[in-house]
Design goal:
CATH superfamily of the largest domain: Type I PLP-dependent aspartate aminotransferase-like (Major domain)
Strand order of the largest sheet: 2-8-7-6-5-3-4
Number of helices: 14
CATH architecture of the largest domain: 3-Layer(aba) Sandwich
Radius of gyration: 22 Å
Mean pLDDT: 95
Order of helices and strands: HEHHEHEHEHEHEHEHEHHHEEHEEEH
Number of domains: 2
Low-confidence stretches: none
Number of strands: 13
CATH topology of the largest domain: Aspartate Aminotransferase, domain 2
Strand content: 15-25%
Distance between the termini: 69 Å
Largest sheet: 7 strands, mixed
CATH class of the largest domain: Alpha Beta
Shape: globular
Bound molecules: pyridoxal-5'-phosphate
Length: about 375
Amino acid sequence: MKASPPTFPRLEVLRDEVRAMRAYAVPDASGLIKLDAMENPFSLPPGLARELGERLSAVALNRYPPADPARFKQRLAQMAGLPAGKALMLGNGSDELIHLMIQACARRDEPGGAVVLAPTPTFVMYEVFARLDGCRFTGVPLRPDFRLDIEALLHAIGAQQPALVFLAYPNNPTGNLFARGEIEAVLDRAPGLVVIDEAYLPFAQHTWMPQLEERPNLVVLRTLSKLGLAGLRLGYACADARWIAEFDKLRPPYNVGVLPLAAAGFLLEHFEVLQRQADVIRSERDRLLQALRARPELTAFDSAANFILFRAADPDRLFDGLLRRGILLKNVSGSHPLLAGCLRVTVGTPQENEAFLQALGALS
Ligand SMILES: *Cc1c(COP(=O)(O)O)cnc(C)c1O
Protein backbone atom coordinates (compact mmCIF):
# COMPACT_ATOMS: atom_id res chain seq x y z
CA MET A 1 0.00 0.00 0.00
CA LYS A 2 1.26 3.44 -0.86
CA ALA A 3 1.60 5.98 1.95
CA SER A 4 -0.66 8.94 1.40
CA PRO A 5 1.30 11.99 0.31
CA PRO A 6 2.14 14.38 3.12
CA THR A 7 -0.01 17.46 3.35
CA PHE A 8 1.73 20.79 3.63
CA PRO A 9 2.52 22.69 5.70
CA ARG A 10 3.48 19.87 8.04
CA LEU A 11 2.87 21.67 11.32
CA GLU A 12 3.32 18.39 13.20
CA VAL A 13 7.08 18.97 13.11
CA LEU A 14 6.42 21.67 15.72
CA ARG A 15 6.37 20.86 19.42
CA ASP A 16 2.94 19.94 20.72
CA GLU A 17 3.21 22.55 23.49
CA VAL A 18 3.80 25.25 20.91
CA ARG A 19 0.83 24.23 18.78
CA ALA A 20 -1.37 24.10 21.87
CA MET A 21 -0.34 27.59 22.97
CA ARG A 22 -2.14 30.78 22.19
CA ALA A 23 -0.12 33.83 21.17
CA TYR A 24 0.05 36.67 23.70
CA ALA A 25 -3.04 38.69 22.84
CA VAL A 26 -2.60 42.40 22.32
CA PRO A 27 -5.98 44.02 21.64
CA ASP A 28 -6.34 46.65 18.93
CA ALA A 29 -6.58 49.96 20.74
CA SER A 30 -6.85 52.36 17.82
CA GLY A 31 -9.11 55.27 18.66
CA LEU A 32 -9.40 54.19 22.29
CA ILE A 33 -8.17 55.70 25.53
CA LYS A 34 -5.59 53.05 26.29
CA LEU A 35 -5.53 52.18 29.98
CA ASP A 36 -4.71 48.50 29.64
CA ALA A 37 -0.94 48.04 29.42
CA MET A 38 0.81 50.13 32.09
CA GLU A 39 2.27 52.51 29.55
CA ASN A 40 3.30 55.99 30.53
CA PRO A 41 0.65 58.15 28.79
CA PHE A 42 2.93 61.13 28.21
CA SER A 43 5.09 61.66 25.16
CA LEU A 44 8.42 63.49 25.10
CA PRO A 45 8.41 67.28 24.98
CA PRO A 46 8.64 68.27 21.26
CA GLY A 47 12.06 69.93 21.60
CA LEU A 48 13.51 66.84 23.23
CA ALA A 49 11.91 64.55 20.64
CA ARG A 50 13.56 66.58 17.84
CA GLU A 51 16.92 66.40 19.57
CA LEU A 52 16.49 62.65 19.95
CA GLY A 53 15.74 62.44 16.24
CA GLU A 54 19.00 64.20 15.46
CA ARG A 55 20.90 61.90 17.76
CA LEU A 56 19.35 58.85 16.13
CA SER A 57 20.09 60.14 12.63
CA ALA A 58 23.79 59.85 13.44
CA VAL A 59 23.58 56.16 14.37
CA ALA A 60 25.29 53.77 11.97
CA LEU A 61 22.47 51.43 10.97
CA ASN A 62 24.77 49.44 8.72
CA ARG A 63 26.72 48.18 11.76
CA TYR A 64 25.81 45.56 14.31
CA PRO A 65 25.46 46.82 17.86
CA PRO A 66 28.64 46.80 19.96
CA ALA A 67 29.37 43.46 21.63
CA ASP A 68 29.43 45.15 25.01
CA PRO A 69 28.08 48.72 25.18
CA ALA A 70 30.26 49.31 28.23
CA ARG A 71 29.83 53.05 28.48
CA PHE A 72 26.06 52.86 28.32
CA LYS A 73 26.00 50.07 30.88
CA GLN A 74 28.25 52.03 33.21
CA ARG A 75 25.96 55.02 32.99
CA LEU A 76 22.91 52.87 33.62
CA ALA A 77 24.59 51.08 36.54
CA GLN A 78 25.45 54.41 38.10
CA MET A 79 21.89 55.73 37.75
CA ALA A 80 20.43 52.46 38.98
CA GLY A 81 22.63 52.39 42.09
CA LEU A 82 24.28 49.08 41.21
CA PRO A 83 26.64 48.19 44.09
CA ALA A 84 30.33 48.13 43.21
CA GLY A 85 31.52 44.76 41.96
CA LYS A 86 28.06 43.62 40.81
CA ALA A 87 27.20 43.17 37.16
CA LEU A 88 24.43 44.19 34.82
CA MET A 89 23.15 42.74 31.57
CA LEU A 90 20.81 44.22 28.99
CA GLY A 91 17.81 42.50 27.50
CA ASN A 92 15.31 43.12 24.76
CA GLY A 93 12.79 44.07 27.41
CA SER A 94 12.92 42.39 30.79
CA ASP A 95 10.79 39.66 29.21
CA GLU A 96 13.87 38.44 27.38
CA LEU A 97 15.88 38.33 30.60
CA ILE A 98 13.14 36.36 32.37
CA HIS A 99 13.28 33.89 29.53
CA LEU A 100 17.10 33.68 29.61
CA MET A 101 17.21 32.99 33.33
CA ILE A 102 14.59 30.27 33.01
CA GLN A 103 16.40 28.71 30.04
CA ALA A 104 19.59 28.70 32.07
CA CYS A 105 17.92 26.74 34.88
CA ALA A 106 15.64 24.42 32.90
CA ARG A 107 16.70 20.78 32.94
CA ARG A 108 14.69 19.50 30.01
CA ASP A 109 16.26 16.08 29.92
CA GLU A 110 15.86 15.31 33.59
CA PRO A 111 12.64 13.83 34.97
CA GLY A 112 10.39 16.59 36.24
CA GLY A 113 12.76 19.31 35.10
CA ALA A 114 13.56 22.28 37.32
CA VAL A 115 10.99 24.14 39.40
CA VAL A 116 10.13 27.79 38.84
CA LEU A 117 8.06 29.17 41.68
CA ALA A 118 6.12 32.40 42.16
CA PRO A 119 3.26 33.64 44.29
CA THR A 120 0.13 33.89 42.13
CA PRO A 121 -1.61 35.73 40.61
CA THR A 122 1.42 37.49 39.17
CA PHE A 123 3.05 38.50 35.90
CA VAL A 124 2.08 35.73 33.49
CA MET A 125 5.37 35.47 31.61
CA TYR A 126 7.11 33.66 34.49
CA GLU A 127 4.75 30.74 34.01
CA VAL A 128 4.58 30.97 30.21
CA PHE A 129 8.36 30.80 29.80
CA ALA A 130 8.74 28.18 32.54
CA ARG A 131 6.33 25.83 30.81
CA LEU A 132 7.74 26.51 27.39
CA ASP A 133 11.20 25.58 28.57
CA GLY A 134 10.10 22.35 30.20
CA CYS A 135 10.18 23.54 33.81
CA ARG A 136 7.57 22.76 36.39
CA PHE A 137 5.81 25.92 37.47
CA THR A 138 4.51 26.16 41.02
CA GLY A 139 2.18 29.02 41.80
CA VAL A 140 1.62 29.61 45.51
CA PRO A 141 -1.65 31.53 45.94
CA LEU A 142 -1.51 34.89 47.66
CA ARG A 143 -3.88 35.64 50.50
CA PRO A 144 -7.25 37.14 49.48
CA ASP A 145 -5.87 40.59 50.35
CA PHE A 146 -2.89 39.82 48.06
CA ARG A 147 -0.26 39.63 50.80
CA LEU A 148 2.16 36.73 50.59
CA ASP A 149 0.99 33.55 52.24
CA ILE A 150 4.44 33.28 53.75
CA GLU A 151 3.92 29.94 55.51
CA ALA A 152 2.69 28.31 52.31
CA LEU A 153 5.44 29.97 50.29
CA LEU A 154 8.26 28.86 52.60
CA HIS A 155 6.79 25.40 52.79
CA ALA A 156 6.65 25.13 48.98
CA ILE A 157 10.22 26.38 48.70
CA GLY A 158 11.39 23.79 51.20
CA ALA A 159 9.47 20.96 49.56
CA GLN A 160 10.17 21.78 45.91
CA GLN A 161 13.62 23.36 46.01
CA PRO A 162 12.93 25.77 43.14
CA ALA A 163 15.83 26.77 40.92
CA LEU A 164 14.14 30.15 40.49
CA VAL A 165 11.69 32.18 42.56
CA PHE A 166 10.09 35.25 40.98
CA LEU A 167 8.72 38.06 43.11
CA ALA A 168 7.26 41.06 41.31
CA TYR A 169 7.77 44.07 43.57
CA PRO A 170 5.22 45.61 43.39
CA ASN A 171 3.20 42.73 42.05
CA ASN A 172 1.33 42.84 38.75
CA PRO A 173 -1.71 42.72 38.50
CA THR A 174 -2.41 43.30 42.19
CA GLY A 175 -0.29 46.46 42.59
CA ASN A 176 0.90 45.87 46.15
CA LEU A 177 4.40 45.61 47.63
CA PHE A 178 5.03 42.39 49.54
CA ALA A 179 6.33 42.80 53.10
CA ARG A 180 10.10 43.22 53.19
CA GLY A 181 10.56 40.89 56.14
CA GLU A 182 8.72 38.13 54.28
CA ILE A 183 10.87 38.64 51.20
CA GLU A 184 13.95 38.40 53.44
CA ALA A 185 12.61 35.05 54.65
CA VAL A 186 12.26 33.87 51.04
CA LEU A 187 15.82 35.00 50.33
CA ASP A 188 17.03 33.10 53.41
CA ARG A 189 15.22 29.91 52.48
CA ALA A 190 15.44 29.68 48.68
CA PRO A 191 18.07 27.21 47.46
CA GLY A 192 18.44 28.93 44.08
CA LEU A 193 17.97 32.32 42.52
CA VAL A 194 15.42 34.83 43.75
CA VAL A 195 14.50 37.37 41.08
CA ILE A 196 12.92 40.55 42.40
CA ASP A 197 11.20 42.15 39.43
CA GLU A 198 11.16 45.92 39.91
CA ALA A 199 9.32 46.81 36.69
CA TYR A 200 7.30 49.43 38.60
CA LEU A 201 10.18 50.97 40.53
CA PRO A 202 9.47 54.53 39.27
CA PHE A 203 6.10 54.41 41.01
CA ALA A 204 6.98 52.31 44.03
CA GLN A 205 10.29 53.94 44.92
CA HIS A 206 11.33 50.93 46.98
CA THR A 207 14.20 48.81 45.75
CA TRP A 208 16.28 45.76 46.64
CA MET A 209 19.31 46.96 44.71
CA PRO A 210 21.47 47.64 47.84
CA GLN A 211 20.75 44.11 49.08
CA LEU A 212 22.79 42.72 46.18
CA GLU A 213 25.79 43.41 48.42
CA GLU A 214 24.87 40.73 50.95
CA ARG A 215 22.60 38.47 48.89
CA PRO A 216 24.58 36.37 46.41
CA ASN A 217 21.42 34.66 45.09
CA LEU A 218 19.46 37.83 44.40
CA VAL A 219 18.74 39.18 40.93
CA VAL A 220 17.20 42.64 40.65
CA LEU A 221 15.33 42.92 37.38
CA ARG A 222 14.31 46.25 35.91
CA THR A 223 12.96 47.74 32.72
CA LEU A 224 12.63 51.15 31.11
CA SER A 225 9.20 50.15 29.79
CA LYS A 226 6.91 51.40 32.52
CA LEU A 227 8.86 54.63 32.88
CA GLY A 228 7.80 55.77 29.43
CA LEU A 229 9.96 53.78 27.04
CA ALA A 230 7.89 50.66 26.44
CA GLY A 231 8.52 50.94 22.70
CA LEU A 232 12.30 50.77 23.10
CA ARG A 233 12.29 47.26 24.61
CA LEU A 234 15.09 47.62 27.08
CA GLY A 235 15.36 45.79 30.38
CA TYR A 236 18.31 44.96 32.63
CA ALA A 237 19.21 42.38 35.22
CA CYS A 238 21.59 43.08 38.10
CA ALA A 239 23.36 40.38 40.10
CA ASP A 240 26.65 38.87 41.17
CA ALA A 241 28.96 38.85 38.13
CA ARG A 242 29.18 35.05 38.16
CA TRP A 243 25.46 34.71 37.51
CA ILE A 244 25.49 37.36 34.80
CA ALA A 245 28.43 35.69 33.03
CA GLU A 246 26.41 32.47 32.82
CA PHE A 247 23.23 34.14 31.58
CA ASP A 248 25.23 36.07 29.04
CA LYS A 249 26.09 32.81 27.28
CA LEU A 250 22.41 32.42 26.39
CA ARG A 251 21.90 35.97 25.23
CA PRO A 252 21.48 36.16 21.47
CA PRO A 253 24.32 38.29 20.11
CA TYR A 254 23.08 41.80 19.29
CA ASN A 255 19.87 41.36 21.30
CA VAL A 256 19.51 45.12 21.77
CA GLY A 257 19.53 47.17 18.59
CA VAL A 258 21.55 50.31 17.96
CA LEU A 259 18.47 52.55 17.91
CA PRO A 260 17.15 51.51 21.35
CA LEU A 261 20.68 51.82 22.72
CA ALA A 262 21.17 55.28 21.31
CA ALA A 263 17.69 56.42 22.36
CA ALA A 264 18.14 55.09 25.89
CA GLY A 265 21.59 56.70 26.11
CA PHE A 266 20.07 60.03 25.11
CA LEU A 267 17.18 59.70 27.54
CA LEU A 268 19.45 58.85 30.45
CA GLU A 269 20.94 62.29 29.87
CA HIS A 270 17.44 63.73 30.26
CA PHE A 271 16.22 61.40 32.93
CA GLU A 272 14.57 64.14 34.95
CA VAL A 273 11.93 64.52 32.20
CA LEU A 274 10.82 60.92 32.70
CA GLN A 275 11.03 61.25 36.46
CA ARG A 276 8.77 64.27 36.41
CA GLN A 277 6.27 62.31 34.35
CA ALA A 278 6.42 59.51 36.92
CA ASP A 279 5.75 62.08 39.67
CA VAL A 280 2.56 63.15 37.88
CA ILE A 281 1.52 59.53 37.40
CA ARG A 282 2.01 58.79 41.11
CA SER A 283 -0.14 61.70 42.17
CA GLU A 284 -2.78 60.79 39.56
CA ARG A 285 -2.73 57.23 40.88
CA ASP A 286 -3.52 58.45 44.37
CA ARG A 287 -6.29 60.70 43.08
CA LEU A 288 -7.75 57.87 40.99
CA LEU A 289 -7.63 55.51 43.96
CA GLN A 290 -9.56 57.96 46.10
CA ALA A 291 -12.15 58.45 43.38
CA LEU A 292 -12.59 54.69 42.98
CA ARG A 293 -12.87 54.24 46.75
CA ALA A 294 -15.61 56.86 46.82
CA ARG A 295 -17.75 54.48 44.75
CA PRO A 296 -19.41 52.03 47.14
CA GLU A 297 -20.08 49.49 44.37
CA LEU A 298 -16.33 49.02 43.78
CA THR A 299 -13.45 47.72 45.90
CA ALA A 300 -10.16 49.32 44.88
CA PHE A 301 -6.90 47.86 46.16
CA ASP A 302 -3.80 49.73 47.31
CA SER A 303 -1.22 50.28 44.60
CA ALA A 304 2.47 51.12 44.55
CA ALA A 305 2.46 50.89 40.74
CA ASN A 306 1.05 52.89 37.81
CA PHE A 307 -2.17 50.87 37.74
CA ILE A 308 -5.00 50.05 40.10
CA LEU A 309 -6.82 46.77 40.52
CA PHE A 310 -10.46 47.02 41.50
CA ARG A 311 -13.36 44.64 41.94
CA ALA A 312 -16.85 45.15 40.58
CA ALA A 313 -20.04 43.15 40.87
CA ASP A 314 -20.24 42.57 37.11
CA PRO A 315 -16.75 43.09 35.65
CA ASP A 316 -17.65 41.93 32.14
CA ARG A 317 -20.53 44.37 31.84
CA LEU A 318 -18.36 47.18 33.19
CA PHE A 319 -15.46 46.33 30.86
CA ASP A 320 -17.78 46.25 27.82
CA GLY A 321 -19.54 49.44 28.86
CA LEU A 322 -16.23 51.26 29.20
CA LEU A 323 -15.10 49.92 25.85
CA ARG A 324 -18.27 51.23 24.19
CA ARG A 325 -17.36 54.61 25.67
CA GLY A 326 -13.91 54.37 24.12
CA ILE A 327 -11.93 53.27 27.17
CA LEU A 328 -9.81 50.12 27.19
CA LEU A 329 -8.99 48.46 30.53
CA LYS A 330 -7.67 44.99 31.23
CA ASN A 331 -10.26 42.48 32.36
CA VAL A 332 -8.36 40.07 34.61
CA SER A 333 -11.45 38.64 36.28
CA GLY A 334 -11.14 35.26 34.59
CA SER A 335 -7.41 34.84 34.94
CA HIS A 336 -7.16 33.60 38.55
CA PRO A 337 -9.72 32.72 41.26
CA LEU A 338 -8.34 35.44 43.56
CA LEU A 339 -9.01 38.00 40.81
CA ALA A 340 -12.69 37.17 40.46
CA GLY A 341 -14.56 40.35 39.57
CA CYS A 342 -11.39 42.35 38.99
CA LEU A 343 -10.44 44.88 36.35
CA ARG A 344 -7.08 46.63 36.10
CA VAL A 345 -6.82 50.25 35.07
CA THR A 346 -3.54 51.89 34.10
CA VAL A 347 -3.11 55.46 35.30
CA GLY A 348 -3.41 57.79 32.30
CA THR A 349 -3.12 61.52 31.81
CA PRO A 350 -5.36 63.65 34.07
CA GLN A 351 -7.78 64.02 31.13
CA GLU A 352 -7.84 60.30 30.42
CA ASN A 353 -8.43 59.49 34.07
CA GLU A 354 -11.25 62.02 34.16
CA ALA A 355 -12.84 60.43 31.08
CA PHE A 356 -12.56 57.03 32.76
CA LEU A 357 -14.19 58.26 35.97
CA GLN A 358 -16.97 60.00 34.01
CA ALA A 359 -17.69 56.82 32.08
CA LEU A 360 -17.71 54.82 35.33
CA GLY A 361 -20.24 57.25 36.74
CA ALA A 362 -22.44 56.94 33.67
CA LEU A 363 -22.38 53.14 33.91
CA SER A 364 -23.43 52.72 37.50
C1 LIG B 1 5.45 44.82 32.27
C2 LIG B 1 6.22 43.90 33.10
C3 LIG B 1 7.42 43.33 32.64
C4 LIG B 1 7.84 43.40 31.20
O1 LIG B 1 8.63 44.42 30.91
P1 LIG B 1 9.37 44.59 29.51
O2 LIG B 1 10.67 45.15 29.92
O3 LIG B 1 8.53 45.55 28.74
O4 LIG B 1 9.51 43.26 28.84
C5 LIG B 1 8.15 42.55 33.52
N1 LIG B 1 7.72 42.31 34.76
C6 LIG B 1 6.56 42.80 35.22
C7 LIG B 1 6.12 42.47 36.60
C8 LIG B 1 5.77 43.59 34.40
O5 LIG B 1 4.58 44.03 34.84
